[in-house]
Amino acid sequence: MSTTAQHAESHAHGHGLGETVTHNAAKFGMWLFLGTEILLFGGLFAAYALFRAKYPDLFYESHKKLDISLGTINTIVLIFSSFTMAMAVSAAQKRNRKWLMILLGVTFICAAAFGVNKYFEYSAKFHHDIFPDTNIFFALYFMMTGLHMLHVFLGMGIILALIIMAKQGRFKEGNRYTPVEVGGLYWHLVDLIWIYLFPLLYLIG
Amino acid sequence: MSTHDHSEEHHTGLRVYGAVCLTLFVLTAVTVYITKFDFGDMNIVVAMIIASIKAGIVALYFMHLKFEDKLTWIYALYPLFLLFLLIGFTIIETFTRVPVIR
Known about the structure:
Chain A is mostly helical. Chain A contains 7 helices and no strands.
């Protein structure tokens, strides 16, 4: 929570209450959207729970074919990208354009690295004749990680748009940085979902 | 949302975000490491508790939920409640189903 001094400082830049209301409304709108995203994945999580309860041995045997080290590396990469995204929002708050662009760039590279890693994982599975129709575990594996990958691609598009906007000087002193904060929220959700996918798919005990 | 007009201006910096990131790395290492041990049916429970701690930290600090107002909290938690109903009852139904003799 900000102090009175910061209030006065912010108002000195000339944005009225309207700006703040817009900023908060945009953030709230993103939280609403994230709720629908959680429920979208929720259907798949419920299907996972049902089939794992029904076929525990099949899930255990099938999960052994996944590469735990690749999964762990991707988890680390995604967490780190969430960290750089959080730092990017911090840079945007301070109107530090240089660091904003650097941090968004690193976040983008991490997202791309995640995608490349996933490409090799999928290729290895196909090479070993493992496809979505192999069994219910792999049907869920490809569906859940595939839908998640789609979100990573969308997130990369958003981050790229933010980099371009930052380059154009859209987040300069006196301007709102709302797009960075809202885009950040979306990116953190992508990380959050992977935090659950990783132990559910790769680490079945 | 109108109670604090400049809620956007909470400056969390490198120190907090760095600590959060390291904590998440450690918890990831822990969750991978403990797969070496068998807690039986508790395996999935332990894995989900660690995942939930990680998710909570991401939401609270990276997503600034800690600084958000009540309304945002309600809308952040409500889908989780729905998810709990969906998954909870799916599991109960699966384990209590009795085969029907035709």
